[in-house]
Amino acid sequence: xxxxxxxxxxxxxxxxxxxxxxxxxxxxxxxxxxxxxxxxxxxxxxxxxxxxxxxxxxxxxxxxxxxxxxxxxxxxxxxxxxxxxxxxxxxxxxxxxxxxxxxxxxxxxxxxxxxxxxxxxxxxxxxxxxxxxxxxxxxxxxxxxxxxxxxxxxxxxxxxxxxxxxxxxxxxxxxxxxxxxxxxxxxxxxxxxxxxxxxxxxxxxxxxxxxxxxxxxxxxxxxxxxxxxxxxxxxxxxxxxxxxxxxxxxxxxxxxxxxxxxxxxxxxxxxxxxxxxxxxxxxxxxxxxxxxxxxxxxxxxxxxxxxxxxxxxxxxxxxxxxxxxxxxxxxxxxxxxxxxxxxxxxxxxxxxxxxxxxxxxxxxxxxxxxxxxxxxxxxxxxxxxxxxxxxxxxxxxxxxxxxxxxxxxxxxxxxxxxxxxxxxxxxxxxxxxxxxxxxxxxxxxxx
Length: 447
Description:
Helix content is 29%, strand content 17%.
């Protein structure tokens, strides 16, 4: 097993050492090693393009009426404590805690009428377009990242096409970065912050990172290790896929994409740093991961998923959201601006959403409870027509007044942006063709 040991220094904001992920077997879910993924991937027919998706999951159900659909004319027990502010799109107002997004809402499309959510706490519907119940009945619906891995494959051989940045969490359904479902483990995400998989290979080589002074030293150690691989007779017996797995790591491209310290400190500060630790049983607000996502798609990743913050505010909704919303404002606004500045806004689509909305009526603990009837989503990039609001809700934010939008409509839009027809089919485990979606119509206002 190739294992590069890390200490407690140089951590990302989710508390994982920025070098701990360098383990050849630790790059997948479900116990399949990276060499196994590459072996299975070789059996898949793939084509190439440079389109990509960054999907941000707000775990727990963010409060739609406190962020992008404020109801100032509703009764006090509904309208909440926050006030709206004007944006650079005439007539569009958003929460006062998002001043930076307010200056660039011309680059964002707001959907205020997401419908069809399930009431359970799970990332599944935001990753696949299907509720967990339906997904299970149908044999395990693949996530969008797995579909891209299957249909498009890698842009760059040393960068996995699908990367999931979600760390482990106390509530496992929130930490799902995107299951491959019936497409098989070959299309699992590379997950550097989970450390679940079992390493493969016969060698047992360890590097003590405690004595390494920095990234250059680490890469020098990897170069030395590569030479050992080339000269060691025992290592010479490893198969092509184990060698390719090592090449992915030792090439440095993937490592460098994850290393946000290579960025201008001013830009990194603009993204914000966020929290160091998970929030109770949910994800941290790790702003660095938005920067990682941009670096990864620039390096060749096709889909990057992020879980950001714990939004299950049954109590103290306004106190806790006043802490989280500004972090999201900083990270998301900088990501969108960064993509535009780098000319990636036509090719990289961004979607931000949660599993459902929250109750219009504030409870007796100053919180809002689960509300699957309606929620919001944000879309940016991908060449979409932005600077608009899609749909409106009633006076209290309880239900759509017009233009309801389903999760599958958002997925159809994302597939359209990627150049993939939503009525494309992929085989299930029995070889039967399965459409990517049941409903193929994208959101006409944005395409």
